Amino acid sequence: MTIREIYIARHGYRSNWLPPPHPPNPTGIDSDPPLAPHGVEQAKQLAAFLTSLPIKDKPQFIISSPFYRCIETSKPIAQMLDLKVAIDRGVGEWFQKSRNVIPIPANYDELNHFFGNVLINEDIWPRDNLHVIPNDKGETNEEVFERCKLFWLKFIPAFEAKFPDIENILIVTHAATKIALGSALLKLKSITDYIDDNITLLRAGACSLSKYSRIFESDDYNWKIVMNGNCEFLTKGEEMNWNFTINVEAGSDEDIKRRKKEEEEQQQQAQQSSNSEEAPTTELAHGSELDGNEDEFDVRARQSFYITVDIPNYNNKYDDDDHNGKNQPKIKRNVIKPSANFQFTDLKESHPLIKLSNNRDTQQDVIEEKLSTKRKSKIVQPSDIIDGRIYETSWNKIVGTELIFDEYGELIGKVEEHIVADPTITFKNKSANDINVDNNDEVTNKNGDFRQIALKRLEEKNRNQN
């Protein structure tokens, strides 16, 4: 068997990318920082993504740059996939010749103090196994490209001979090396070449993942890229993307200063733009009261506004009478599925309309129907009762305050009021010529045109006010 898929990942967010003070380098080696806490989380998210892949696509072997941040990124991946991590200087960091210090990374004996339960036995894959070693005087763009070409030329036949049953491998490396390795696989002329006619460069954000698949119809050394710097599994998406056109080392002090300067310039431009134009404001929902405080309005109008919506609940109607008869219908709990559609009219109105649809579970209905037959009592699904209906709502002030937290447990806002659906007032769409919705009408409809109903009702209200 031969290598079929190659994944190349960049390490996660480095600790020295954050403002100082920075933690000391664990190995004591220059330019060998650990990951920031955010980078550790990125590594876990990358591990979860790789673990979620089909068995045939999961990495079966991990090779890492010997620098601490790369092995730290590899650690959760190895643990979740039940693998060990080999190190190889051939995929190590790129340092420019202008550097005063060109660090030499640690070997297995030093790294085992930190990653003893993660690293592979040194005898299986020595750090300098292929004798592809970065120039200790630094490398030009062309030299790092040649180093990566040589790495593949030696690595693929040596690895396939030693591990004939492994088809998918993961390499965890650095931005420059990630790009150079990919460029070599694609047989580009240089590390700044585009990979397609859309002027696309190879991407190398923090903890990004690229994937290359072998073209078996051709010779053994032709590859195609099927994933370019993927970051969709990361909570904050792509960060710290880099390429060789930037002309400074990725993640270096010069790179951080350059990014900070660009960010400040963008902020200044945005400030100048906002000063020359009237700042847009978001009107508060109809149910909010400002008590004439214009300063409060100015602040709150620029913040996210959270409300809760109470959908009709039919449980109590049956629960109270459930003991009166064995054949009394059983009410299931209201459950809103992620696939449900929720629509609403303008929240500045005193009585917004809402509609919840696509919330039925047809497969569950079949199961419940069979259970109902055995129990000799009908099971009522509340989602079936409200699905597709348009309800009129009213604003209600909540007693106390409800807090909103994100997925990490961070407080992001609070709810001070909500809208409550009136189950006695629903709307039905009639023919296009005789739509006439009155506040006192009590009509139902499962397949009405929501937008048309809402607009018609708004027209009726405006005419009444005039």
UniProtKB/TrEMBL annotation:
Residues 267-279 have a biased composition (Low complexity). It comes from the Eukaryota. CDD domains: HP_PGM_like (cd07067). Residues 18-37, 255-295 are annotated as: Disordered. It holds the Pfam family His_Phos_1. GO terms for molecular function: phosphatase activity. PANTHER family: TRANSCRIPTION FACTOR TAU 55 KDA SUBUNIT, UBIQUITIN-ASSOCIATED AND SH3 DOMAIN-CONTAINING BA-RELATED. This is Uncharacterized protein. The lineage of its organism: Eukaryota, Fungi, Dikarya, Ascomycota, Saccharomycotina.
